[in-house]
Amino acid sequence: MAYSPNPATGSTNTGNLALAQAAYDRLARFALRPELYFDQVADIKPTNQSMPGSSVTFPIVSDLAIASTALNESTDVTPQAISESNVTVTLAEYGNAVLTTAALRGESYVEIDPIVANVIGYNAGVSIDEVARDTLKAGTNVAYAGTATSRATINGTQLLKAADIRAAKARLRSQNVPNFNGFYTAYIHPNVAYDFTSETGSAAWRDPHTYSQPGEIWAGELGAFEGFRFIETPRSPVFQGVGSSSSTGYAPVYGTLCVGRQSLAKAWSMIDGNTEQPHVVPGPITDFLRRFVPWGWYWLGGYSIYRQASIQRIESGSSLTYADPAIDQ
């Protein structure tokens, strides 16, 4: 008996066939990620460490007082003592891990191992970079924007100005802080950068860039200004719930970190495969059927402020209150 089309539709009846299915992209994509910047200013590192230990001590030898008085012809000089101070970096353990199962690896429509490697690698980088940032933001040299006299008096009108940056440069240079290839580094939050680059006037950021470097205006780059190379990052410090109070709550306070060389010291363990950066660790497979495969990262190291004079933090508000992060950074 010959098969004939459906008389009602004039087409072959395929109502029982499940051939049309939803499709999936087999390329996994990841969350929006900030760049990692803070570890790069840790330029004080062990160069001739004596032995492994729970901490590493960096000595700083003080200079002698200036001897600008003429010597007496018949009187001998009085020897002066050479003094030193020490900065100690205490090592601590950091790490994280994930566990994949045989069922997940066998049933997933995307390959699992590259995803695990990507997630583990980025988590190691951003975690250690945050340890570096939190060390930097604990510096004790603090200035407040506008008319603010403390963190608690900052609101959305106490904005970072060019004069604040010039003052930070003066403080760094007056204490002989060396720079990075001609520029100090300033970490600035995008909310603060919005107000900072909106300031007008011949002494502000915008006018010299508009007339001499218009390409940076069009590209939205902050570039260099007043001796600083600006790095715009959402991971610049934000202190939530500590600013001036209002009917809508406490204003967030933003910290712009202005740093020079020798601001941060970094040390790490020298044994068991530890290096300057975290390393990936394949965990042991201990189940009888070898279904559970752990992967992680580990680092034994630490940071410490090396010279307080090399870190100047300017705390300010921002007019972009709607874009404030939900948590402390």
Architecture overview:
The chain is an alpha+beta fold and 329 residues long. The protein has helices at 102-107, 112-136, 162-174, 190-198, 206-212, 214-219, and strands at 55-61, 84-90, 92-100, 142-144, 184-188, 224-225, 228-232, 238-239, 245-246, 249-250, 253-259, 264-268, 279-282, 293-305, 311-316. It is flat. The protein starts with 54 loop residues before the first strand and ends in a 13-residue tail after the last strand. Residues 216-221 and 322-328 have low confidence and may be disordered.
What does the secondary structure layout of this molecule look like, with pairings?
Blueprint: E1 55-61, E2 84-90, E3 92-100, H1 102-107, H2 112-136, E4 142-144, H3 162-174, E5 184-188, H4 190-198, H5 206-212, H6 214-219, E6 224-225, E7 228-232, E8 238-239, E9 245-246, E10 249-250, E11 253-259, E12 264-268, E13 279-282, E14 293-305, E15 311-316
Parallel strand pairs: 4-15, 5-7
Antiparallel strand pairs: 1-2, 3-14, 5-11, 6-7, 8-11, 9-10, 11-15, 12-14, 13-14
